[in-house]
Write a structure and sequence with these properties.
Blueprint lengths: L3 E10 L3 E11 L3 E5 L6 H8 L7 E6 L8 H7 E4 L11 H11 L4 H14 L15 H13 L5 E5 L7 H18 L2 E6 L2 H7 L2 E6 L2 E7 H4 L2 E9 L3 H10 L5 E3 L2 E5 L4 H13 L3 E8 L4 H10 L1
Parallel strand pairs: 3-7, 3-8, 5-6, 6-7
Antiparallel strand pairs: 1-2, 1-4, 8-9, 10-12, 10-13, 11-12
Bound molecules: adenosine-5'-triphosphate.
The site of adenosine-5'-triphosphate has 13 residues, from strand 2 and helix 1.
């Protein structure tokens, strides 16, 4: 069963803004990156999945449940970390997360135990009785993550979880998200405008642009080997490029790398022979892999 399925999902705000436009996608369990520039429609998509706002058109199912009909059932299975926070400064993290556990329907003792557990998972166990107002941005982000975990969900929806963090804080947050996904065996949707970040920790990506689906696929499929051979020699790059050009191979350069289209099996042999003839120190010879960033770069070029 797919985790999230949409069919022609559309959301307009007023008459002017189409935040989601005919979005059809099926998302499999795992750690999923929901990427797109600011304003692409990511938060709108998350809020529709939670049943917080209703779509203008189309269908959505989360765990096969329709959040527009049965939002409580979806929310019982889903934890949500919003982009912006409204954390009360004068209560402790333990009190706050316990309170949200209670709101989720947990009995008092269970809520307290689950809150301690969730705060331990996010690395705030020692600090849990301190008032949130005294916390750093990174700690506040962790409180938000802990509250999303308190009712033991099967899916987490995290909206820009690294917002406001410095590079070290971002790395720590991403590592934590990855650990939660793998150790708890739950699915996580990580919403971000930073492709490089989510690419590092996700199994699959859903890329949206202007409310439309750009691509949804496993990262491994997006970075599959291309039909280009990349060759790098420690010295003699110019000689190598000239010799391959003389063989009528359409050579291009990318920094220290010489790139040749892999037209047939013989291309490898040609390259190896040239390297050997010129007695060059071969550093690298492999099929270049696609980069996930090409997804957006190609689009920009096409639109230009
Ligand atoms: N309540 C609203 N009323 C009117 N327009 C809205 C509302 N919420 C979002 N929008 C608009 O819908 C579009 C998509 O917004 P959304 O917040 O879903 O994007 P996003 O990808 O999450 O971006 P960000 O990361 O900046 O929040 C934007 O043009 C935004 O200005």
């Amino acid at each position: 069963m797919s985790l999230i399925v949409t069919q022609g999902l559309t959301k307009t705000y007023g008459t002017q803004v189409t935040a989601l436009h005919d979005l059809t996608v099926a998302v499999e369990p795992g750690i999923i990156g929901l990427v797109g520039a600011n304003g692409a429609g990511k938060s709108t998509f998350i809020k529709i999945m939670l049943g917080l706002i209703a779509p203008t058109g189309g269908q959505v199912r989360v765990f096969d449940i329709d959040p527009t009909v049965d939002p409580d059932r979806v929310r019982a299975k889903v934890g949500y970390m919003p982009e912006h926070d409204a954390l009360p400064p004068d209560v402790s993290a333990a009190e706050f997360v316990t309170h949200l556990g209670r709101i989720s329907g947990l009995p008092r003792t269970a809520a307290r135990e689950r809150a301690s557990e969730a705060l331990r998972h996010v690395g705030l166990y020692e600090e849990r009785y301190r008032q949130i107002g005294g916390y750093s941005t990174g700690m506040k982000q962790r409180v938000k993550l802990a509250q999303s975990l308190v009712h033991d969900p099967d899916l987490l929806l995290l909206d820009e979880p690294t917002n406001g963090l410095d590079p070290a804080g971002r790395d720590a947050m991403l590592a934590l998200i990855q650990r939660i996904g793998s150790e708890f065996g739950i699915s996580v949707v990580v919403c971000s405008h930073l492709l490089g970040e989510v690419e590092r920790i996700c199994d699959s990506l859903v890329a949206i642009e202007g409310g439309r689906l750009l691509r949804a696929d496993r990262i491994s499929a997006m970075t599959e080997a291309s039909e280009v051979l990349a060759i790098e020699v420690s010295e003699g790059t110019d000689e190598l490029a000239a010799a391959l050009t003389a063989l009528e191979l359409p050579v291009t350069r990318d920094g220290r790398m010489v790139l040749v289209p892999l037209t047939n099996e013989a291309t490898y042999d040609h390259v190896l022979r040239v390297v050997a003839d010129l007695d060059l120190p071969l550093h690298r010879l492999d099929q270049r892999r696609h980069r996930v960033a090409e997804l957006f770069a190609t689009r920009e070029t096409a639109d230009a």
